[in-house]
Amino acid sequence: MVARRLSLGHVFALAVAGLALLLGALFALLLEGSRRSIIQSADTLRISAGRRTEDRVFNHAPLSRQLDYVRAHAVRVPPVYHLDGTS
Fold first, then answer.
1. Cβ-based neighbours of 77, under 8 Å, separated by 6 or more
2. CA distance 52 to 68
3. Under DSSP, is residue 46 helix (H, G, I), strand (E, B) or coil?
4. What does the pLDDT look like over 36-68, one tens digit per residue?
């Protein structure tokens, strides 16, 4: 049985294919790391914005007085039940 010899073209094609696979794997790793970083940053920003909003709402004296006034003088409306055609 005669062993088939690789030509320079075959070696070059295999090297290009190997480099393409390696580049694809590196790109996938970079994309995954980027996605995780973006999600973590978004969560951090969301939490800090929520805390700032909460502090502004609960620590703003005129607003809290207005809310107390609205709660004290609010008109109590009984719930309205939706009547569907089956009853």
1. none
2. 21
3. helix
4. 999 999 999 999 998 898 888 777 667 667 777
Q: At 70, is the secondary structure helix, strand, or coil?
A: helix
Whether 57 contacts 63, CB under 8 Å: yes
Q: Is 77 exposed, middle or buried (0-12, 13-18, 19+ CB in 10 A)?
A: exposed
- Residue 79: per-residue pLDDT: 63
Q: Could you give the CA distance from residue 12 to residue 19 in angstroms, rounded to a whole number?
A: 11
Q: Is 78 left (phi over 0), alpha (psi -120 to 50) or beta?
A: beta
Domain locations in the chain as residue ranges: 29-73
Percent of residues, the chain, with pLDDT higher than 90: 49
